[in-house]
């Protein structure tokens, strides 16, 4: 007799439901700690076949920790689970756990690939640097906006030039300087930390064979290469390279019902940040890159026919396909390769 366990995970407590032969045999709550949950499952469900929980902030930790405890952990897509869990008359943690256990028993779910901790570290490094860069831009804009109110227009310039211009303008405005200088010090500190993370990111990208392969493509830098390699992890995770474009959300949606059948905008599913990076790289290829390639030629023809934005999206999708194929074969970018994907 096999048991199926559903976990509705929250920050402090986790609702647990156990089913066997189509019936619930136990449910309750315990601390949101994988070791505690593993002990409970061993006690209440010694012949467990699946331990199912939804994607969420704790899913990576729970998945790897439960697997290390010898539990058959399965992380499922929260969007798909929601449709089934909404059938319950009352939305409670216990009912959600029951629903997840039921999905595990009938195998009606879509399993999600949980990234390893190395990939999560790389993604965290990129995200931390990106956040610090945005904070520094927000602070510099705040400084410019406040000073403009008092008739002090900061000349164009970035970095040390910006700081010197601000200090020069504040030299004769002591009351305002007491407010702006703390913001300027915070801006300088954040900028220094973002630069430090940027150097760390570039150093790690140069040490990675996968990133070196991807950076051979014009328009692909350390940030995009690291983000893509961390998202894909192993090329064998995708049977076909063209599936990567759909996974990132760069393929069009389709709606069909009876005689109605049309394609809409791109799905925008998957990693928003990676999709944005690929779009930026495609824009660079179409506008700033001076290296001729079959990909650029194909993209420029699309721009003439469909406009810049649609062409950039198409090139971004093509980039995703090419980058996955490069990781699979281990070959550097070939600018003369055909553009058909």
Automatic annotation (TrEMBL):
Domain Transposase IS116/IS110/IS902 C-terminal per the UniProt entry, residue ranges: 211-292
GO terms for MF: DNA binding; transposase activity
InterPro entries the UniProt entry points to: Transp_IS110-like_N, Transpos_IS110, Transposase_20
Biological process per Gene Ontology, one example term: DNA transposition
Record-annotated membrane-spanning stretches: none
Superkingdom to which the source organism belongs: Bacteria
Domain (Transposase IS110-like N-terminal): residue spans on this chain: 5-149
NCBIfam families: transpos_IS110
PANTHER family: PUTATIVE TRANSPOSASE FOR IS117-RELATED, TRANSPOSASE FOR INSERTION SEQUENCE ELEMENT IS1111A
Designated name of the protein: Transposase IS116/IS110/IS902
